[in-house]
Design a protein that fits this description.
mainly alpha, 223 residues
Length: 223
């Protein structure tokens, strides 16, 4: 007896085909993705010890940053597998989480359960939030139709994922920018947590990752 249902099997097979195309098309971006992963690992390794100081702000940021790190590889996987709508939902959640982390760091939390203000995000990421929200709230029907369009003809939809170059590149670029922002926030957090020791120098890594995002057209200039 197969361990997969017929639907799961065909979805897995289709996702594998999409991943092959994604890997070929996003070579430079995947270099940046690896670099930001290595950067995050360096910071996590440095932070695997008792802090010198632990405030409420730091405690909240430790929790939020840790949860974001846990999903690092999952986001790349669903983007590269062609599940662009699902990826959009996670990326939107990550934008809100990053904004909350920054608000905690700046001690600028509004105590009325309002969602975090994504305008605090760096690298001009805030404009992406509206478009991701349209997708998540299913109000952008024309975009959802693009995800499920079928080569057989207009008006025919398919549940099988297909490679969409524009979405693959833009969503992966945004994921990398978010993880770079996360790395910077973890560094700033560790400045507060480990006041008696030197932290890793991350300037070179940041510039290398940012340079790739400029070269691939996601950013207009180094910021």
């Amino acid at each position: 007896m197969s361990e997969y249902s017929k639907l799961e099997k065909i979805l897995i097979e289709s996702a594998q085909k999409v991943r092959v195309l994604s890997k070929k098309s996003n070579v430079e971006l995947l270099v940046a993705y690896k670099k930001v992963g290595d950067l995050l690992y360096t910071l996590i390794e440095h932070g695997a010890r008792e802090p010198d100081v632990l405030t409420d702000s730091c405690s909240n940021r430790v929790s939020l940053t840790s949860n974001m790190v846990q999903s690092f590889h999952i986001v790349e996987d669903i983007i590269s597998s062609g599940a662009y709508w699902s990826a959009s939902a996670v990326l939107r959640q990550h934008m809100e989480t990053l904004a909350r982390i920054i608000e905690y760091r700046e001690d600028n939390i509004i105590r009325d359960k309002k969602p975090p203000n994504v305008k605090v995000l760096p690298f001009n990421m805030a404009p992406n939030y509206g478009r991701l929200s349209e997708l998540c709230h299913t109000s952008g029907g024309e975009v959802l139709g693009d995800f499920s369009g079928c080569a057989e003809g207009e008006g025919i939809a398919t549940a099988i994922p297909a490679y969409r170059e524009e979405w693959s590149k833009s969503l992966l670029s945004l994921h990398i920018a978010q993880m770079l922002t996360l790395a910077i926030e973890i560094y700033l957090l560790q400045v507060e947590l480990y006041q008696k020791s030197d932290l890793p120098n991350i300037d070179k890594d940041i510039m290398e990752i940012a340079k790739i995002l400029v070269e691939t057209g996601f950013w207009k200039e180094l910021t």
